[in-house]
Design brief:
The protein is built from twelve helices and eleven strands. The strands form three sheets. Strands 3, 4, 5, 6, 9, 10 and 11 form a seven-stranded mixed beta sheet that branches. The protein has a two-stranded antiparallel ribbon with strand order 1-2. The longest helix is centred in the N-terminal third of the chain and has 19 residues.
């Protein structure tokens, strides 16, 4: 039997980053928080926290916190009442950065509690669902993860773009494989394969791209606007830049469409009905139909 007060202490330490902040949130002393977690670790025979600094969760700790959050959300939905303590339930959801920066944020106020957003690439978010670390995710995987329901959202179109000046400087003889080996690109992070996929589709070969790593959607687009490099930007985020000519596609008619799906743990679906409805509605308004 899991000790849920101890699990609540673990969740607050992980969420707030310190024993002191967790104690304040729970209305107990810091030694009491520490003792609860030590007792839980002893009972389970696993280390649940890396005491740092900073304090971070082990993989086992994150799994337990995900379980804690799901149980509290289910409790909160019973007969439409809140759980016994004052803290609202937390919903852990994975969303890719470009969706969050464009359309998804408008749906998130409909979450029935506090959100703990995990920003991860749409091609990797299903791994978080499989591990039970999130209750729902925006993914690129069509078929449902085991134990999940899958809802089609739409296609996010990406364009390889740069400023006119960047193109004239780095591609004086046109967009060629040789020029791409020298022209700096912009990449979101090490999981971002969109630039490489676009190159392979249009040039039939793998090219090692010199690249900046810029892991936020807004700064990524701004770096392209400032002429730091070329990159795959969501059309929805750069529509005004395209209209004004501030950014132009490297090659015409070479959009890269990324299909997106909302996957939600089946056991959590009833508690997150309103969130799911609004995620689907907002996506329909913003994305190209599948």
């Amino acid at each position: 039997m899991i000790d849920y007060p101890a699990l609540a202490a673990l969740a607050e330490v992980i969420r707030r980053g310190s024993f002191d902040a967790a104690a304040h949130a729970l209305g107990i002393t810091q030694p009491a928080v520490s003792q609860r977690i030590k007792s839980l670790e002893a009972r389970l025979g696993q280390v649940l926290l890396d005491r740092g600094p900073p304090v971070t969760a082990t993989e086992a700790g994150m799994r337990l916190v995900a379980h804690h959050d799901q149980v509290r959300l289910l409790e909160a939905g019973l007969a439409g009442i809140a759980p016994g303590d004052a803290l609202p339930p937390t919903i852990r959801v994975a969303v890719n950065a470009d969706s969050l920066a464009s359309w998804a944020i408008a749906a998130l106020p409909h979450a029935p509690g506090l959100l703990d957003l995990v920003i991860d690439d749409q091609d990797h978010a299903e791994g978080l669902l499989r591990a039970g670390l999130v209750s729902a995710a925006v993914t690129a995987q069509r078929g449902p993860v085991a134990g999940c329901d899958s809802h089609a959202l739409g296609v996010m179109d990406y364009l390889a773009v740069a400023t006119p000046d960047f193109i004239s400087r780095h591609f004086p003889d046109g967009i060629t494989a040789e020029a791409l080996r020298a022209a700096p690109a912009i990449t979101f992070n090490k999981k971002d394969a969109l630039q490489n996929e676009w190159v392979k589709r249009n040039f039939g070969q793998r090219i090692t791209l010199p690249t900046h790593l810029i892991p936020t959607s807004e700064a990524f687009a701004q770096a392209v606007r400032l002429g730091m490099g070329w990159g795959m930007n969501p059309e929805i985020l750069i529509a005004e830049d395209l209209r004004s000519g501030r950014l132009i596609p490297l090659l015409p008619d070479t959009k890269l469409g990324v299909p997106l799906y909302w996957q939600i743990a089946r056991i959590m679906a009833p508690a997150l009905t309103d969130l799911t409805r609004n995620i689907r509605r907002t996506a329909r308004a913003a994305l190209r139909p599948l």
